[in-house]
């Protein structure tokens, strides 16, 4: 390994490690809150699933790419290649649908009582688990097309084009099949992205209108604080904008590599971009959620008092 490979492997290893710790901490904290007898918020159900999808994305994309940078290439057989690419795509699509669900749920939560969404406010929490199960089932079944359509080049005598990922490779399907797979697999993501952008725009409109109304009735002797709903909405908007940014960059790299010969630099850049959202989203939720921070303080104080008791 040269110096560039050492730097790249350190970057990927750090990215996977930091991201996995953040998402695992988020899941563990929600479990601790539940086992402690406290009632989980409806939105916590979505956050746990998003953290699980993030962990899956980091494990199936970040770790293989780290091993490639370290010089360990084509270490997966046909089964390992199919499973890895399958769960990569499942995790990616789950991130889209769960982020869309998170954005839509928050938009319904902060909608005015006189709006058309007012009737959904009381019913929305009941629909989270059924919709989440539907998303998981749908993506797990839909992306079965990836391992089915994959042919291992080792067993094909007339090799024309091979798609190399570093950790595995497979035969590129015909243009018609490739277009069909791309359309079928990308259409649901495009629909979820549309709903996500629409709900985010609606939340931005509500925040702007609320800010304008607060400015009109503002009195200098009264200090106004942002409500928990406003803080949560801003956090979700940050997560959505982060996801859309990195998702768009990844789509650009994928499209570019589909028409241009793939280089290791592009593969590394695409893998790094894909893994950025699972890392950033977890820490954004941890440091901006007042309830999560409150329980972190409770855990820290309980541990400190326990250590003080042992010392005495």
Please tag this protein with its features.
two-stranded antiparallel ribbon, 312 residues, globular
Kindly name the structural category.
mainly alpha
**Amino- and carboxy-terminal Cα gap:** 52 Å
Overall outline: globular
Mean pLDDT: 79
Low-confidence stretches: 219-225
Discrete helix count: 9
Percent strand: under 5%
The counted number of beta strands is 2
Structure notes:
Strands 1-2 form a two-stranded antiparallel ribbon. Helix 7 (228-259) runs antiparallel to helix 8 (264-288). It has helices at residues 3-35, 42-69, 78-109, 118-142, 145-148, 175-216, 228-259, 264-288, 290-311; strands at residues 162-164, 169-171. The chain has 312 residues and is mostly helical.
Concise overview:
By secondary structure, this protein is mainly α. The chain is built from nine helices and two strands; from the N terminus they run αααααββαααα.
Break the fold down into its secondary structure elements and pairings:
Elements: H1 3-35, H2 42-69, H3 78-109, H4 118-142, H5 145-148, E1 162-164, E2 169-171, H6 175-216, H7 228-259, H8 264-288, H9 290-311
